[in-house]
Amino acid sequence: MCEVEGDYNGLECNQKIPVPTLNRKCMKCKEGAAVLIIRVNDAFCRACFKEYFIHKFRAMLGKNRVIFPQEKVLLAVSGGAASCSMLSQVQEGLSREAPKKLRFMPGIIYIDDGGACGRSAEERQRSNALLKSIFTETGFPYFIVSLEQVFSLPASVLVPGTSDPDPSNLSYKQAVDQYVKEKQTLTEENVASAVAQLSIGDSVYSHKHKLALERLFSSLKTLTAKEDMLQTLRQHLILHIARENGYSKVMMGDSCSRLAVRLLSNIALGRGAALASDTGFSDPRYGDVVIVRPMRDYSSKEIAFYSRMFNVPSVFISGLDTKTHDKASIQRLTESFVTNLQSDFPSTVSTIYRTSEKLHTVMPPQSQSAEPASKCLLCLCTLDTKEDCTTEYEFCVSA
């Protein structure tokens, strides 16, 4: 037992234990002092980390080649660090100093889901004003849409659009060649017309739609169902705005940490058949609008470091799961499980993420006379149940 007058080899109770200092060189340039360590042996200086972060974004777009030159791309920004970092990368790629400029035409959309998350009108106005200032500085057209407007959408949003390829864009190389030929220097008139085309949408909603949204979410008894419904409504609203304004691609800011949590939670929710679409780089299930995830190679740690070191503006907006306990919902429990496991085993997220890369949707062979596969009205994924099998099972049970 401890004694008051015991000898502790000269150590005093208030004596501080020396903390080891970081004295490592950058793994890339071998000259600069490392300012952060992403993984065990991945130490970067400030300049090399910025170059690494930018190259990762460009490599993801260049490897997949699904975004063509002069194509309109809608950036879904929620105000968080991941989506704002994605917006920063697009700005960086379109700047004049970029060695290989991005060639698409971006727009920004923010879905104000304060009515579903219980935020007051003052909080919603404050967050919208902060995001407006960020969006205005980019010079891109932007849309701020309230979630209540989902009740004014036409019934056609529940039907996937046609995905017939544009004859003018038969291949990526042809699109690049056409872009180079048509490239011209912007005159003052072109600049003025481009600024005049900025679509600034205010988060306006009617009282009737506000009450309808409140009734919808009050009818959902669990936080799991509310988060799932919020994701579905937000997705349909983004797709509708993209179709209305001629955007054929939508960029989401999902990181690999977020996708790892989504993969496990979707399995728990019985959505295993749609994992390839929910976690892959491109999601073509909606036909005329394709969702892409260029941030899926970044961990939440890399995004947090980049946002802090290079002052990427972001806005914290409370959600449904803000200040909830770990067992409040399936999504929240999965996130807590993966995060805690990642702190002890640093390869947890990467292992789950690499598993998601191997997933793909198996399309059964269909003849011309066969009827098209049935799809879910909410997520538009192909149903993974067959009516004949269910009927046969019920017959065997009844017998």
TrEMBL record:
Signal sequence extent: none
Q: Which UniProt keywords apply?
A: Cytoplasm, tRNA processing
Q: Does the keyword Ubl conjugation apply?
A: no
Task: Write out the GO MF terms.
Answer: nucleotidyltransferase activity; sulfurtransferase activity; tRNA binding
Q: Which GO terms describe its cellular component?
A: cytosol
Pathways per UniProt: tRNA modification; 5-methoxycarbonylmethyl-2-thiouridine-tRNA biosynthesis
Query: What GO terms in the biological process aspect are recorded for it?
Result: protein urmylation; tRNA wobble position uridine thiolation
Pfam short name (any one): CTU2
Name its cellular compartments.
Cytoplasm
Q: What does this protein do?
A: Plays a central role in 2-thiolation of mcm(5)S(2)U at tRNA wobble positions of tRNA(Lys), tRNA(Glu) and tRNA(Gln). May act by forming a heterodimer with CTU1/ATPBD3 that ligates sulfur from thiocarboxylated URM1 onto the uridine of tRNAs at wobble position.
* Record family assignment: Belongs to the CTU2/NCS2 family.
Q: What is this protein called?
A: Cytoplasmic tRNA 2-thiolation protein 2
Native species? Cyprinus carpio carpio
